[in-house]
Amino acid sequence: MSFCSFFDSEVYKDHFKPGMYVCSQCNNPLFSSRSKFPHSSPWPAFTETIKEDSVTKMMESLTAFKVLCGKCGNGLGHEFVNDGPEEGISRF
């Protein structure tokens, strides 16, 4: 996983086979397919990381954090607070 391109189709958005999503730069485990859910955004959506230190988060606003790989710092996108499949759950 890395920042998604607006010009290409995102390969993993509709991919729901069991497995683990890892950083494209260092293979650090980031998300499990068990935390993936369908969402209207053009990117894959997850409710939680595999481990707390799988990612590093930096606050961008009251409702969004910039998300980086916890091992190598590769940009992964954002965590959107309270935008998950249930009330009170965030979306990565």
Automatic annotation (TrEMBL):
Pfam family, one: SelR
Domain MsrB as annotated: residue spans: 1-92
Source organism of this protein record: Hucho hucho (huchen)
Catalysed reactions, as listed in the record: [thioredoxin]-disulfide + L-methionine + H2O = L-methionine (R)-S-oxide + [thioredoxin]-dithiol; L-methionyl-[protein] + [thioredoxin]-disulfide + H2O = L-methionyl-(R)-S-oxide-[protein] + [thioredoxin]-dithiol
GO cellular component: cytoskeleton; nucleus
SUPFAM superfamilies noted in UniProt: Mss4-like (SSF51316)
Entry-linked InterPro entries: Met_Sox_Rdtase_MsrB_dom, MsrB_Met_sulfoxide_reductase, Mss4-like_sf
Known function: Methionine-sulfoxide reductase that specifically reduces methionine (R)-sulfoxide back to methionine. While in many cases, methionine oxidation is the result of random oxidation following oxidative stress, methionine oxidation is also a post-translational modification that takes place on specific residue. Acts as a regulator of actin assembly by reducing methionine (R)-sulfoxide mediated by MICALs (MICAL1, MICAL2 or MICAL3) on actin, thereby promoting filament repolymerization. Plays a role in innate immunity by reducing oxidized actin, leading to actin repolymerization in macrophages.
Name the record gives this protein: Methionine sulfoxide reductase B1b
PROSITE patterns tied to this protein: MSRB (PS51790)
Record keywords: Cytoplasm, Cytoskeleton, Immunity, Innate immunity, Metal-binding, Nucleus, Oxidoreductase, Selenocysteine, Zinc
Keyword set includes Nucleus: yes
A GO molecular function held by the record: peptide-methionine (R)-S-oxide reductase activity
Subcellular location: Cytoplasm, Cytoskeleton; Nucleus
UniProt keyword annotation of Glycosyltransferase present: no
Family: Belongs to the MsrB Met sulfoxide reductase family.
Residues spanning the signal sequence: none
